[in-house]
Design a protein that fits this description.
The complex is a heterodimer of chains A (about 300) and B (about 240). By secondary structure, chain A is of the alpha/beta class. Chain A is globular, with a radius of gyration of 21 Å. In chain A, about 45% of the residues lie in helices and about 10% in strands. Chain B folds into 2 domains: about 1-180, Glycogen Phosphorylase B (Rossmann fold); about 190-245, no CATH class. Chain B has helices at about 30-35, 40-50, 60-70, 75, 90-95, 115-125, 140-150, 160-175, 200-205, 210-230, 235-245; strands at about 20-25, 50-55, 80-85, 110, 125-130, 155. With about 240 residues, chain B is an alpha/beta fold. Classes of the chains: A alpha/beta (about 300), B alpha/beta (about 240). Chains A and B meet through helix 3 and helix 4 of A and helix 6, helix 7, helix 9 and helix 10 of B.
Chain lengths: ~300, ~240
């Protein structure tokens, strides 16, 4: 596993400088131009972004476009055939998981374990907060158990590849309100890298340029990454048929949404919004109920 | 509820007494819960329900808890063996010790804050969830209430944990939890019928042709299964609709 992003390095500082310079030039242009032109420029920009948002949402898959696994699952007696869906014959299956801390990590790692199958065309990327050594250790433990299972199957290539990207925390506990935008910006810059840079182990391989799916379940950094992905889609950098964002509301939320959940729900940055309790499904517009991601094996 | 004392029901087996495991989580600590489980009243309730052992994961309040236990008079301990520690890497052995197993051990219970629920459920030990009232967000309380309503756990309240123990005894009797098969640790990879396939469908949405093909196949498979064994009225209509699609 390769880790990157401890301190802001040259690339991140450059990105930051470009962003700030861009905002500065835009601001100065607005001031210098006659009012009429400024208004037109801003209106044009807003119209462009709204139009792109509409296009992005048009290309977003709805959960209705495939049979959900919450509908009766095939039992062993009824599935002698090749199980569906099958991703093993695809050129690539590249998934990014954004881990939070504590309970969020426990839940997401359990979901990853339950969805894992040995396949050499897979790449798993973990986005973890800097200093969150507990999540890092547990992700490594999970990957070690995957590797061991593949060895027992007699083919280590079935493990696929994996890497870790560390990004700074968007907001530390008890962080002051005034410094939060700055740390969010730093997290967003690191998130851009985490989304844009393809996995080293798959450099140049077809299908591994962009993550197919990004999954998160509640940490603040998950929302930052979701926002970055959406922004990159608006700008046409990330293709519209890649980087599906899946938000899973924590299993511990049975009646109300978490802050991250409310943000995702409000902004529509997630392609699919999953809740794990029937009650919550009724209360959240567009939410999809899915069972068996964590908790009791059903 | 002392009639539920199962050591009387299986005299020939002479299984060891029940275990209770209390866990408060790593970071926040939960002093109210630790204080409650070190009262003579709670230990008496444990003894009455046939428990002989109490393991406590104390987090940051280990010294505090040890001092409280040391201050108990011998008769207040009711013969319960109490052991305490701050943290362990893997609590699974403690959870398994509370899981009833046919011919091996009787079901005890795990008393935990809301953060450990999933791990306990996976092992299948009876569970008392105690929401930590000092944490600002009250979604722990909502979760505890919902779990109790669905009979997945008992909602324990500080000051009334003896009642929770009585409810656990009831659950154990109703669900025959003293006689479960041995605990089987999770397998890797998980069985195909248990695997979460949702993310595979999401990956397939990046390959529309493949998605279309597999969706069609899945629909046909489902229809075949249903025709072989139609269970409900209206399923034929579903099948007809699927074929039209």
């Amino acid at each position: 596993m390769a880790a990157q992003g401890q301190e802001p390095d040259d690339v991140e500082i450059t990105l930051l400088a470009v962003l700030i310079a861009g905002a500065g030039i835009f601001g100065i242009t607005l001031v210098l131009l006659p009012l009429k032109w400024s208004v037109l420029l801003v209106a044009g920009l807003v119209a462009f972004l709204l139009y792109r948002h509409h296009i992005v949402k048009l290309h977003s898959p709805s959960a209705q476009s495939f049979p959900l696994s919450s509908t009766p699952r095939p039992t062993s007696s009824t599935s002698p055939r090749n199980a569906l869906p099958s991703t093993t014959s695809l050129p690539a299956a590249y998934t990014t998981y954004i881990l939070g801390s504590g309970g969020h990590t426990t839940e997401l790692l359990e979901t990853i374990r339950r969805s894992w199958q040995p396949a050499s065309n897979t790449h798993r990327r973990y986005i973890i907060s800097v200093n969150d050594t507990s999540s890092l250790t547990r992700a490594a433990q999970l990957e070690t158990s995957f590797a061991k299972a593949c060895r027992q199957l007699g083919d280590e290539r079935l493990w696929g590849t994996t890497d870790v990207v560390l990004i700074p925390r968007a907001r530390k506990v008890h962080q002051s309100f005034w410094t939060a935008p700055w740390s969010c910006l730093r997290a967003a810059i690191a998130a851009i890298r985490a989304v844009v840079v393809p996995p080293k182990a798959r450099w140049g391989q077809a299908g591994f340029r962009w993550a197919h799916v990004l999954v998160t379940n509640g940490p603040a950094n998950g929302f930052i990454v979701g926002a970055v992905v959406h922004g990159l889609k608006l700008l046409g950098i990330v293709p519209l048929d890649r980087a599906r964002v899946v938000y899973i509301e924590s299993w511990a939320r049975s009646r109300t949404l978490s802050l991250t959940g409310r943000l995702f729900n409000l902004t529509g940055f997630a392609d699919v919004f999953i809740v794990q309790h029937r009650e919550l499904e009724g209360r959240v517009k567009g939410a999809v109920y899915l069972e068996g991601l964590v908790g009791k094996e059903i | 509820m002392s009639a539920c004392n199962s050591t009387d029901q299986h005299p020939a087996l002479s299984l060891p007494p029940r275990c209770c495991f209390v866990t408060v989580g790593a970071t926040a600590g939960f002093r109210d819960l630790l204080d409650e489980v070190s009262t003579p009243g709670f230990l008496r309730a444990l003894a009455e329900q046939g428990y002989g052992r109490l393991d406590v994961q104390c987090g940051p309040d280990l010294a505090h808890f040890r001092a409280r236990v040391a201050a108990l008079a011998d008769k207040d301990r009711q013969g319960i063996e109490v052991s305490a520690f701050d943290l362990v890497d893997d609590i699974t052995p403690f959870l398994v010790a509370c899981r009833g197993e046919e011919g091996v051990r009787l079901a005890g219970c795990v008393i935990s804050h809301a953060g450990t629920v999933l791990e306990v459920q996976r092992v299948g030990a009876p569970l008392v969830v105690v929401a930590n009232p000092t944490l600002m967000d009250n979604h722990q309380l909502e979760l505890a209430e919902d779990l109790a309503r669905r009979k997945l756990a008992v909602h324990g309240r500080i000051g009334h944990l003896d009642e929770a123990l009585a409810k656990i005894a009831q659950l154990v009797n109703e669900g025959m939890l003293d006689r479960l098969p041995p605990y089987a640790p999770p397998t890797l990879p998980v069985l195909p019928e248990n695997r979460v396939t949702f993310f595979d469908w999401m990956v397939l949405t990046c390959y529309p042709d493949e998605l279309r093909k597999q969706r069609h196949l899945a629909t046909l498979n489902q229809a075949a299964v249903r025709i072989a064994a139609p269970k409900h009225k209206g399923e034929e209509e579903d099948i007809a609709r699927m074929q039209v699609e």
